[in-house]
Amino acid sequence: MHIPDGFVNLPVAAVTGVVSAGALGYSLKKAGKELGEQSVPLLGVTAAFVFAAQMLNFPVAAGTSGHFLGALMACVLLGPWAGFLVITAVLILQALLMADVGITALGANVFNMAIIGGWLGYAVFAWLRRLLGRSSTGFLAAVAIASWLAVVLASASCALQLWMSGTTPLQLTLPAMVSVHMIIGVGEALIGTAVLAVVLRARPDLIRSLPPALRRPTLVPEAAGGASGSARWAQTRKVGVFALVALVVALALVIFVAPFASPWPDGLEKVAEDHGFADTAAEEPLWRFSPLPDYTVPAMGEGIWSTAIAGLVGVLVLVAGPGPRPGTQSRLSLTLDRDGGQRTAAAIVAQPTRSPCQDSRVPHPGNRNRGRSNGPWARWPCAWCRCPSWWA
User: What are the C-alpha distances in Å from 282 to residues 101, 267, 288?
Assistant: First the structure.
């Protein structure tokens, strides 16, 4: 569904580019506020996985292939704002490094895949999640249905853009695009649901869109006076291990599987060939500085190893790329053991320059020192959150 240069005219490219740029700025702002420091590495790993999965074209019909979109999966896993950033980062890399996305159509591609496929698909998922209940089965069923619909809606949006650009009549392109992507959407639903099912079983706390009833607590500090730093380190280590496993899977996909992907044209390319507007695409990409054009290393020519190395470079760039700087630090729910009973403190979000002990809603020992300058906790870290309690 990647639109090349020449398929959309200047007005459509400009409007979709402005809308996509505005959505990018808003997503950066929102993601920076919502994501904790532990979540930022997951953005790069998720982007790397989506990039690797998009290299795996699978046959869907005679002479037609499809590939994973990943927008709905990323939005469900990381939230709609971070999910938008993941898909946008993948498309920018594909445009600049691989010349797979038309540079003039980059805004249109972001609009179709990240806004329509991601945000609109996520809205459908959120509605289905409430409708199907808060069980794990209902959650995965909502993911599957919304994943399929996200691909179909994105293909319809692409057909509308081609029609508004005067590239092809709507009555021909819309049914053709929707029909072929209804089949591709089945693969999208299977892959996205399988990935989230694995995460749901292994680390449900990493799924931001998961109902609280399905989450398992992962950070349980020790009793008052005990150090929670070790528990936090254990939590960070678990996230790192999970991210490393996901990275290894992405690397395995681009090295061992992507070189053997289906050579058939994808849904948009097949529709363009069948309806006679494939020649409107630019013969050469307008962006001529791609170091790995068409997922190959120019010095090595076309071949299995050339594709594998190009994919490896793309994965590493996405993993190493900068993510949004967290503007706040998410505070984890704390399970407290008092008088033999279990109580859970409300999870809140603290400003980066504000001590968690300054919030009276959390029963931290540091609260007893509010307004004092020489109390027993004045110069010692808080036993609950290890913050310097003299801030309180």
Answer: 12, 18, 12
> Cα separation of 35 and 82, whole Å?
8
Q: Where are the beta strands (DSSP E) in 177-244?
A: none
Is 128 within 8 Å of 161 (Cβ atoms)?
A: no
Q: Tell which phi-psi region holds residue 166, choosing left (phi > 0), alpha (psi between -120 and 50) or beta.
A: left
Do 217 and 204 touch, CB atoms closer than 8 A? no
3-class DSSP state of 343: strand
User: For the chain, how far is it from start to end, CA to CA, in angstroms?
Assistant: 54
| Sole residue written with tokens 């949006």 | 157
Return contacts of 124-127, CB within 8 angstroms, 24+ apart: 124/149, 124/150, 125/72, 125/75, 125/76, 125/209, 126/209
Reported as type and span, the H/E element at residue 230 is helix 229-252
What averages of pLDDT result for each successive group of 10 residues across the chain (392 residues)? 93 97 95 76 91 92 89 96 96 94 95 97 96 91 97 97 95 94 96 95 89 64 43 58 82 87 91 90 84 93 91 92 54 34 35 40 43 42 40 32
Element at 108 (helix H, strand E): helix 106-110
